[in-house]
Design goal:
single chain; about 250 residues; mainly alpha; Serine Threonine Protein Phosphatase 5, Tetratricopeptide repeat; 14 helices; globular
């Protein structure tokens, strides 16, 4: 039985901190943009968790240069971070109309479509990887698309490929651990996730992902103790209920 997509998507879309996963775009190419300083401001705003500011910068560039592909990418990235998915998709599609071979635009569009149509997202990510086969962001998101379809072994291959290209990519490590737990290998899942959770600078999101893996492994007590570090008792109970539903569904008993 396929795992409930809403529960799984919430766990797998691991980006920076506890916010929705955000597409990290490369620096603008001089061939695509003449607004480098402004785009650096947009990138800094996105990295600093200020997508509204990044959107304002990108909109300003596009008011003068409506077909600036690099600005369109930043606009899409900011809109996605603001959870304005339909508008983000429009920005990425406009970028592809201007620059048809833009792997970042394909990745961005795939991110928007992951929750609704992971198979379509997988196709877009394969297209991106045909253009940039070693892109770790595309490989990580490919793993997400496959996990959402219940193709856990293939997903784990994608996460491992992402880590081969970017060994410090925490998102891919966390997603790999969760995928292992979902595929019935909680021991290996905990081997991946426990070192991340033990790090002194580990985010609350990673601790919650480790709690999910513990719950999937059947250790609800340990999961509860970990969740209690960041959440209220009511939030802990809600999270454990969701993890238990996820475990039943992954086992095909829901």
């Amino acid at each position: 039985m396929r795992t409930p997509i809403g529960l799984l998507l919430g766990l797998l879309l691991t980006g920076c901190g506890g916010a929705p996963a955000r597409l990290t775009l490369p620096p603008a190419s001089p061939r695509l943009s003449t607004a480098q300083p402004s785009l650096r401001v947009a990138d800094a705003a996105l990295a600093g968790g200020a997508p509204a500011m990044a959107l304002q910068v990108a909109d300003g560039i596009l008011a003068r240069q409506p077909n600036d592909a690099a600005a369109l990418l930043r606009q899409g990235d900011a809109l996605y971070a603001l959870q304005r998915g339909a508008e983000a998709a429009d920005s990425y599609m406009h970028a592809l109309a201007v620059a048809p071979h833009s792997a970042p635009a394909l990745i961005g569009l795939a991110r928007v479509r992951l929750g609704r149509d992971p198979a379509a997202a997988e196709t877009l990510l394969q297209q991106a990887l045909a253009l940039d086969r070693r892109n770790p962001t595309a490989l990580n998101d490919l793993g997400i698309a496959r996990d959402l379809q219940g193709h856990h072994a293939a997903a784990q291959q994608a996460y491992q490929a992402a880590l081969a290209e970017a060994p410090a990519m925490t998102a891919a490590e966390v997603n790999l651990g969760l995928s292992l737990a979902l595929s019935g290998d909680p021991t290996r899942a905990l081997q991946v996730l426990r070192p991340l959770a033990a790090s002194p600078d580990t985010s609350s999101r990673i601790r919650q992902d480790l709690a999910a893996a513990l719950a999937l492994a059947g250790d609800s007590a340990a999961a509860e103790a970990l969740l209690a570090r960041d959440l209220s008792p009511a939030q802990v109970a809600e999270a454990l209920s969701g993890y238990q539903q996820l475990r039943r569904s992954a086992a095909g008993t829901d």
